[in-house]
Design goal:
Protein name: Glyoxylate/hydroxypyruvate reductase B
Strand order of the largest sheet: 8-7-6-9-10-11-12
CATH architecture of the largest domain: 3-Layer(aba) Sandwich
Order of helices and strands: EHEHEHEHEHHEHEHEHEHEHEHEH
Radius of gyration: 22 Å
Helix content: 25-40%
Organism: Veillonella ratti
Bound molecules: (2R)-2,3-dihydroxypropanoic acid
Number of helices: 13
EC number: 1.1.1.79
CATH superfamily of the largest domain: NAD(P)-binding Rossmann-like Domain
Strand content: 5-15%
GO molecular function: glyoxylate reductase (NADPH) activity; hydroxypyruvate reductase [NAD(P)H] activity; NAD binding
Largest sheet: 7 strands, parallel
Keywords: Oxidoreductase, Pyruvate
CATH class of the largest domain: Alpha Beta
Shape: globular
Distance between the termini: 23 Å
Number of strands: 12
Length: 325
């Protein structure tokens, strides 16, 4: 019997593909240029599964001519490139990779908070450039102890960050759509968004990108923050209006920004954001450790194998169409 066909429209980890290849036939786009959408649609006509990647928009249009698709999975927790309702309408379960990356992303997130508040990169640059003695006072650090961290989007990663913040002596407040009934377990306190912006020394974004969160951080939001606040985004770049952030930094509405995600991504080296001289930007490396990326890729492979066998995915976003086993 021929093996099911899994389309992979870009580069993913080889070890996971070797594992997946024991169960399926893999049809992978290996060119350096992005796979043209029309070619992907053509390949999907014969496919049983899709290993999606976050640069591909996965929606009803993409899968319209893919009658055999039984499962789609992607190696990320965020899925703003996927219109999950369109997959649900076709009874296709969609698997993402929560949990396995929680601690890695929280570690990177808190590393950004600590590095930015003590201006580690700027200070290290002074040593490298032989200017130690002339170091100016504008790269003096700020204390985290006895300061307040405000988290927008308190899910598993936010909770993990809050533990690290408490270890540094910070008070943690949060804003979600709804106050969490279990907030006492995490020693965090709910605030409405405006109160959180006004009260926080560090404003931390860890929300998913949705219609509601798109450009949530605009000029008005930055005006509500303290002038000496640190703004940190580890969620998605488009939650922030980048022009408004550049404005807020240049006008002194806020003090500094530390970003794992930007809009656009990749951020060009001559982008005005970098010219503010008040940012620490890293290239979307929240989950980018060898162990975590391996765990994410293996979980994605497992979700595809299970979906092809008509079994429940380990981690499924649209549980209503997850196989029942
Ligand atoms: C995700 O998985 O959505 C994160 O952006 C990875 O860093």
């Amino acid at each position: 019997m021929s093996k099911p066909v899994v389309v992979v429209p870009g580069l993913v980890r080889k070890d996971a593909l070797v594992y997946l290849g024991e169960h399926v036939t893999i049809k992978q786009w290996t060119e350096k240029t992005p796979m043209p959408r029309e070619t992907l649609k053509e390949w999907l006509k014969e496919a049983d599964a899709l290993w999606s990647i976050n640069t591909v928009k996965v929606d009803a249009d993409l899968i319209a001519d893919a009658p055999n698709l039984k499962v789609i999975a992607q190696a990320s927790v965020g899925y703003d490139n996927v219109t999950v309702d369109d997959l649900t309408a076709r009874q296709i379960p969609y698997g993402n990779t929560p949990d396995v990356l929680t601690e890695s992303v929280a570690e990177l997130a808190f590393t950004l908070v600590a590095a930015a508040s003590r201006r580690i990169v700027e200070n290290a640059d002074f040593v490298k450039s032989g200017m130690w003695a002339q170091r100016p006072s504008n790269i003096k650090g700020k204390d985290l102890s006895r300061s307040t961290l405000g988290i927008i989007g308190l899910g598993a990663i936010g909770i993990s960050i809050s533990r690290r913040a408490r270890a540094f002596g910070m008070t943690v407040i949060y804003n979600n759509r709804h106050k969490r009934a279990d907030e006492h377990l995490y020693m965090v306190e709910y605030r409405d968004r405006d109160a959180l912006l006004a009260e926080s020394d560090v404003v931390f974004v860890m929300a998913p990108l949705t219609e509601e969160t798109y450009h949530m951080f605009d000029k008005e939001a930055f005006k509500k923050m303290k002038n000496d606040a640190l703004f940190v985004n580890v969620g998605r770049g488009k939650i922030v209006d980048t022009d408004a952030l550049v404005w807020a930094l240049n006008e002194g509405e806020i003090d500094y920004a530390a970003l794992d995600v930007t809009d656009p991504e990749p951020l060009p080296a001559d982008h005005p954001l970098l010219q503010t001289g008040k940012v620490l930007v890293v290239p979307h490396i929240g989950s980018f450790t060898d162990r975590t990326r391996r765990d994410m890729a293996m979980l994605t492979a497992d979700n595809i194998i299970l979906g092809l066998q008509g079994k429940p995915l380990k981690t499924c976003v649209n549980q209503e169409v997850n196989y029942k086993g």
